Amino acid sequence: MKTFFNAEHAHHEGMVEMFRGEFVPCFDVPARAERVLVEMRRRGLGTMANPAPIKDEALLRVHAPRYVDFLRDAWSSWVALDPANAYRDALPSVWPVRQHRTDVVPDNFAARLGLFSFDAGTPLTQGAWRAARGGAACAIAAARHVQTGAKGAFALTRPPGHHAGYDFFGGYCFLNNAALAAQTLRDGGAERVAVLDIDYHHGNGTQSLFYERADVVYVSIHADPRTDYPFYLGHADERGCGPGEGSNVNLPLPRGTPFGVWRAALAQALHVIAEARVDALVVSLGVDTFEGDPISGFLLCSDDYLQVGEEIAYAHLPPVFVLEGGYAVDAIGVNVANVLEGYVA
Ligand code: SP5
Ligand code: ZN
């Protein structure tokens, strides 16, 4: 399977993230993407390609112009706020909550940082824009590749994307790679696209982007938002609205879910996608469902991921796989490669 590797990914390397009142080392480390690359090369799984560069305008198919402007200028604005900021990542510490003005973009950069984000766990680094844009190019290239008739494609990138929305970052995500892939498929002629999100966390960014649209069906298996990040979205009764009514399907599962139960949810998700009669598929491929993941609570084993890939193959739609989470660095290469090997085998 052709793999579009984001050669810019390592430009984003956060120092710390805020967790329950203390700074802890970042979980989205550059080694994640490198380990996947090494394991795929070791198995001879697919050819590596660099994506064609994209224009910033391509991002506007999914993101707000003022948000893209914010990301592009974020680092220089952060350093302009205080020259000493050059030596620390930007983390928000103030947010507009509920009744707030959305029509005024504040001059104060710390206020802008909060306006365009939803957590303090996502450091905006000097290289975040460069790395995220490289990832978006991979997702778009992978979608185009599938549309030329390939059996599948893989966007191997970090930072991940499914928590990023129309005008906000968070959950280690800045640009929504999976949404960009889905929109690229639509723009290339697919009538209806499904996004299957199997990351441990609900893809609040992807859901919110397509919530009122019938042409992109979002189906997600994730930890119950009552107990798990991103907390405020991802419940089973969120079914889409307006023209999108019925085109959003959330399958939340409790912490501690073993593979047998998770696999039944995957079968249900694939059934929903079959019924939706889509002509293209994007898979938000997170492997933080792994039993050894340091921030998650499902119990999938490395071998289980082979079956995950096999099950996805039964959908008979050439998938655009996009890497999302997975923080057990020593296992991420094997787990991701197992999904792709299970798919092509
Ligand atoms: C793409 C993706 O998987 N994003 C996940 C973002 C999760 N952010 C919150 C992480 C909370 C860290 N918890 C540390 C627990 C240490 N025992
Ligand atoms: Zn995740």
From TrEMBL:
Database matches in InterPro entries: HDACs (IPR000286), His_deacetylse_dom (IPR023801), His_deacetylse_dom_sf (IPR037138), Ureohydrolase_dom_sf (IPR023696)
Regions annotated as coiled coil: none
Domain Histone deacetylase span(s) in chain numbering: 30-341
UniProt keyword annotations, A-Z: Hydrolase, Metal-binding, Zinc
Domain of life: Bacteria
SUPFAM superfamilies reported in the protein's UniProt record: Arginase/deacetylase (SSF52768)
Pfam families the UniProt entry points to: Hist_deacetyl (PF00850)
Gene3D superfamilies recorded: Histone deacetylase domain (3.40.800.20)
Cofactors that this protein relies on: Zn(2+)
GO MF annotations in UniProt: histone deacetylase activity; hydrolase activity; metal ion binding
Example GO BP: epigenetic regulation of gene expression
Family recorded in the similarity comment: Belongs to the histone deacetylase family.
Designated name of the protein: Acetoin utilization deacetylase AcuC-like enzyme
Organism of this sequence: Pigmentiphaga litoralis
Lineage: Bacteria, Pseudomonadati, Pseudomonadota, Betaproteobacteria, Burkholderiales
